[in-house]
What does this fold into?
Amino acid sequence: MDDRHFPDLRRLRAFEAIAESGSLVGAAKRLRISQPAVTYLIQQLEAGLATRLLERTSQGARLTPKGEAFAARVVRFFAAMRNAVEAQLGAARTERRAASVCERLTRTQCRALLAVWRGGDAQDGARRLAVREQAVLRAIRSLESLLAAPLLEHGGARVQLNAGGREFSRRLALAAQEITSGLQIIGSGPAPGVRSLRIGALVLSPRLILAEAVDACARSDPRQSIEITEGSYEELVALLRSGAIDLIFGALRDPPPYDDLAETALHEDPYVVACRRGHPLAGLKRIGRRQLAAAQFVLPTAGLRQSVMERLLAEWGVESASQIHTSWLPSLIALVRSSDRLAILSQWHIDEDGAHDLQALPAIKIPHATRHVGATTRRNWLPTPFQACFLEELGAAVQVRVTGR
It folds into this structure.
């Protein structure tokens, strides 16, 4: 969600109160404001969304189908916001104090904090919001006072968030994703360019499976849009935990490095040592240490494959004299195809993703536990219907590839 479109908290609080109490009168009592004020806030919310959320009846206010769908996300939004506040308060938190802070949080404070977090410092945050830097700092200072905790620090001439401010911002951004999902479900997107599904693809993720699932999902609803971002595991996990992407497709870590992540395995895809077809070692049933020591490897520069390669060479007591180091997959494959160099790839990549001029060397065993490919998501993530469709199509694509049915 664009920081400028962070939701109006007063309107959402009024809507949540009506959804829970079932009436305007009950919402007014809960919020300690007048009934006309509640009515006005709901009218503003509906006008902004161009959607009817409530039906007024003689018995009170009843949620429309879209209102019910949106209310579920609003409840999750405020629960996530409360979790963010409680985590920031730490040992000083009490139920009463956390509730008080959540009630007094403002849209202006949240927008300013997220803008600085995404921009890197207060100056860039102000630029993102098209306001003066002092306005951003004033909003965050008021938030610091509310939390009784510092959020900013000086880094030379820059004013930026401290570690606590960055973590609070990350949690706040995840809360805002609930509203983004709610808007997508009811057909009221917050701004042009917001994607319905954002996938992070790891380097060796099976590309044909991903393409088939994405294509099938896109055809199911042409109104929706999908964005695919490629990157390292570390890069994509950071994006996932900040709400910038919805899931990661590729090799699982089992267990994931953070407690707030969950993994769903789809199929086995072991690492293998790959070579070009016709390689001198390809026809051998046994490969000795001397032959492996004489081989030239294309060595990965980072990530899981690098650690696997290091274990492989250590287990064989071999020091590679490789001249070439790269984790960029197109270069790695081109180098293996055009020479007698070896590299670590995945079995699925060789068998299914069009690398037909490559083959595995089964005589070289990889010292690594069974590798699974699947989806990594946030543990408490609730996918939209379109996102759930993609997960179903992803499982179906794997099933077809594995079983032929």
